[in-house]
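Below is just one:
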Amino acid sequence: MPVSERIIRLPTVLNRTGLSRSTLYRKIAEGTFPAQVQISVHGAGWWESAINRWIADPPGYRAENDNRPMGDGPV
């Protein structure tokens, strides 16, 4: 049975990556970290699979076409 995709929030992302909040947002602006997805008017998070891809290869990560869960259409 496949594991469903989860959206994780900022504290979890910071804990899993070891990045500071300012570094994380700088990397998003540079395109070297996954962008957030809006989950409500005032809430946002990240696809867990996108964070896992960044953790697997931080220097090689590029954010093009990575604002959706793994397996959600062509890359």
